[in-house]
Amino acid sequence: MTPSSIRRLSLMLFLVVPFLSSSPVFAQDADPNALYKSAVSLLEEQEATKKDDAKALELFTEAANTGHRGAMDYVGWMAENGLPGGKPDYAEAMTWYSKAAEGGYFLSMGRIGLLYISGLGVPADPEEGVSWLRKAVQGDEPMSMFWLGQCYENGHGVDVEEGEAAIWFRRSASEGVTQAMNSLASMYVDGRGVEESSKEAYHWYSKSADSGDMTGLYQVGWMHYSGEAPEADESVALEWFKKGAEKGHLDSMFQLAWMYYKGEGTEVNLQEAQKWMALAHKKGHAEAEVHLYRIGKVLETMKKNDGS
Fold it and tell me: Can you tell me whether residue 255 is helix, strand or coil?
């Protein structure tokens, strides 16, 4: 996944805001909510430029200076991610997150927790990070529920407790966080913290896929391909891999190419196989190069035979 696509995915996960089709010119006494929404619309544009990011930061900052907590959080988020076009400034991010958190903004509390856990902008202190995540989930903040689940899954600031991780992943997933859906599904696949259940795994991966998440799209395809899905069907697997591939998911591209190459779930289509394997190779799939070569040799032989 490219940095640009990661940024767009992050926007979708962290905020639900109305999309505005234009960015109006604001007077000095403009409504901070209007400033905020206009800034978000700039960042959400598919072809957003560095200039758009700079304007968004200007609008967020103006709104933040009036006390808008969501805008404070976004100024911090842009600093953390080095937008527009600079290096991450974690100390600046912590400053803005702290201002928003002081005003009771729960998402910023969760973000502060992550900075402490990772030691970015502050000395690493996982226990302090977990403390901030607990404050955030007291406000039913969905992303922070997911992050707290990760702490229990991986032992960051707490002992590993996979059952507790599953509880927080479920709460977050129920609020629509696709990463939590995928993590919970993975636990059902492996029987970690929950009783192993391919049915439950498929349920949560499907919810993720229905939200357009690339991991969910791939995993639903894989469960059909591997026979783990209810009423598994290779032709259905092909369709899910195609959806993931069209979004740029690397493993989906490779698997789609493989199925066209082998005629699994569809008729053999070497041209499509070559197309998707070439894209997988270009994006860095470790196994794509050798298979791209083989597909090319088969096509070359077929061309010679047709000409003889």
Answer: helix
